[in-house]
Structures are given as C-alpha cells and as structure tokens.
Write a structure and sequence with these properties.
By secondary structure, the protein is of the alpha/beta class. Helix content is about 45%, strand content about 15%. It has helices at about 15-30, 45, 80-85, 90-100, 120-125, 140-155, 175-190, 205-210, 215-220, 225-235; strands at about 1-5, 35, 65-70, 70-75, 105-110, 130-135, 165-170. It has a 7-stranded mixed β-sheet with strand order 3-4-2-5-1-6-7, with helices on both faces. Strand 3 and strand 4 form a beta hairpin. The radius of gyration is 17 Å and the shape is globular.
Length: about 240
C-alpha cells in the first residue's frame, strides 16, 4: 500500500485541495483509495460532502465513508470536537488501523493541519511519502523552510517514514512577476526535489470546493483538472 501525506506548516497553500484531488485522481486511475482527514477542522471532510453517494461501495472498515467509486473518507474529528477540547489523537491506534488496510487499499492519502502539532506528526508517522504544497509567494517560502527542517527531524525520529516525495508549486499565476521568480528560485535550490507539475491558479477549483466536489467532477476540462491530472500521473510514474 502506498501512503502519501500532504503537509505544510503554513496554511492557505492548497494542501487540502491537493489531498482531495490526489485521492480522487488515484481512484479515477483505478486505485482503491482512502482519504484520511487528520485536520481537526475537517476541511477535507467538508470539501467532498457533495460527492458522498449512498450507491458507492462500502469500505472494508465501518469508519470508512464511501465518497465515490474506489474512494473512501476517514472523516476528521470535526470542529465541534475542537471547540469542546475533545479532539485528541491516538497515533498507535491509527497505525494499527492503517496496517490493517494492507491488501484492502492501494493508496492512503492523508491531509494534515497547517502546523506540526500532534496531528501533523501523526500524519508523518503514518506515511512513507510527503508532498509539500507551496504557494508562489514570500511567506510560503518561509513556511517551506520550516517544513524542510521538520522533515529532517522526522527522518531521524521515524525511520522509513516521511520521506519527501517533492515540493509542489500551487496557485501559480504566471502573470505575476514574483511567481516566476519564486518558481526559478525553487527550481535552482531544490533541483530534483521540486515536482515537475505546477498547479496554476484556477477559479474552477474554488467553485468546485464550494459545491463539495473535486474539480474532476465539477469542471473536468478546466485548467485545474488538467493540472491535477498531470500531478497524479507524475506521482504514479514516480
């Protein structure tokens, strides 16, 4: 089973959007996929609400909510649990749960909160690969530096887990000079660690999220859909 976590210590970089589209993209490509929402705020859980189908096949575990064909969701604890102080995480139990999915699921995609708290570290411990989405702007670059340091710590603390698969530029507007400069800097400094795929800014991604759908459902021929199709193919090939 392949396991990939989307992580960044800065919010607003397209982390949840990327998690959703990687998960649905892998499912459309024929893989059995579980999308695990480890953000207590539950953004990934909300973002697929418009896709939930009673006709979708049940998962191998009662916790797994059917979203679409070959795609299931393990929902977040949710905002109410956060406000009440009841949002806690049992990493050992999650690890046992994930181990039990071997042979039942082909790909595990985990969405983490925009910080390296106990939830963020749990995502790193569960997954072999990490994709770090980064928006092409200055403060995101600072967040990337922090995230790279966290991954260095993870390599020492959790052998075999949390290996950086690549940094993904998101929400890129090539009409903005700073975006071009940052892409050039990323390419120069990261070299092979920078993914080939670039996610360009597309209003269809925002519209799809407002309908609780992936852009593959809402706007399958849009720029956003084409970008995420390219990303899925790159990760499959890699």
């Amino acid at each position: 089973m392949r396991s990939i976590v989307l992580a960044n210590q800065k919010g607003g970089v397209g982390k949840t959007t990327t998690a959703i589209h990687l998960a649905h993209g892998f499912a459309l490509a024929g893989r059995r996929v579980l999308l695990m929402d480890l953000d207590p705020q539950g953004n990934a859980s909300v973002a697929v609400q418009g896709m939930l189908s009673e006709d979708a096949p049940k998962g191998p575990h009662e916790w797994m909510v059917p979203v679409a064909e070959r795609l299931w969701l393990l929902p977040s604890a949710g905002g109410e649990a956060v406000q009440s102080g009841e949002a806690t995480i049992d990493t050992g139990r999650l690890q046992a749960f994930v181990a039990g999915l071997e042979g039942e699921i082909d790909v595990l995609i985990v969405d983490c909160p925009p910080r390296m708290d106990e939830w963020g570290w749990a995502g790193i411990q569960l997954c072999e690969e990490v994709i770090v989405p980064v928006q092409a702007e200055f403060f995101s670059m600072h967040g990337l530096s922090q995230m790279m340091s966290s991954l260095e710590q993870a390599a020492k603390r959790y052998p075999g887990k949390g290996k950086l698969r690549g940094v993904l530029p998101t929400m890129v507007d090539t009409n903005e000079a700073v975006a071009k400069e940052i892409l050039e800097d990323l390419s120069h400094n990261l070299k092979g660690l920078l993914l080939n795929t670039v996610i360009f800014r597309d209003s269809c991604l925002v519209e799809a999220a407002s309908h609780g759908q992936s852009v593959f459902v809402h706007s399958p021929w849009s720029k956003g859909a084409l970008c995420y199709t390219e990303l899925v193919q790159e990760i499959i090939d890699g």
